[in-house]
Amino acid sequence: EDSMIIRSPEPEVKILVDRDPIKTSFEEWARPGHFSRTIAKGPDTTTWIWNLHADAHDFDSHTNDLEEISRKVFSAHFGQLSIIFLWLSGMYFHGARFSNYEAWLSDPTHIGPSAQVVWPIVGQEILNGDVGGGFRGIQITSGFFQIWRASGITSELQLYCTAIGALIFAALMLLPVGSIITKLLQNWLGSKM
């Protein structure tokens, strides 16, 4: 049976593919700062490093809205303060929990300050030395004990309270950051809708 099949002619299709739609090369990427004219001058001076870090924080180049710039600056400042208070809280807690601060206060000329005791794991306790007052640990020379004494802290309880206070301040610094970021997101999402 010879049946007659009618076929439409297949259109001739040409597919064009650009192999490199965005001009890129590893040579260009290897050049430091190829994306910025000031950074592209190269690492001849420390200005290059400052420009590298400053571009991310150059809010004026991101937008012209003064309110948005102010919000970003204050958000960055309060975030940084929160990190500083968190660090201080850890420092005070570590001093209250692991140091010989009260023993050092009783006789600072014969007892060395120590805020670190190495636990006996795999023979590492050999690092602990006699700092006086029946305490074995690593003697510190940072001056934290002197700073604490000069600021009026005379007990471990006061160190604990200061640690908790710094932790509370760290949380308080995050409140304005949250409200500022919420406002920025509302403005940004409002402009996208």
Automatic annotation (TrEMBL):
GO biological process per UniProt: photosynthesis
Membrane spanning residue stretches: 157-185
Organism from which the protein derives: Nymphaea colorata
SUPFAM superfamilies: Photosystem I subunits PsaA/PsaB (SSF81558)
One family name in Pfam for this protein: PsaA_PsaB
GO CC list: chloroplast thylakoid membrane
Keyword terms of this UniProt record: Membrane, Transmembrane, Transmembrane helix
Protein name (Swiss-Prot/TrEMBL): Photosystem I P700 chlorophyll a apoprotein A1
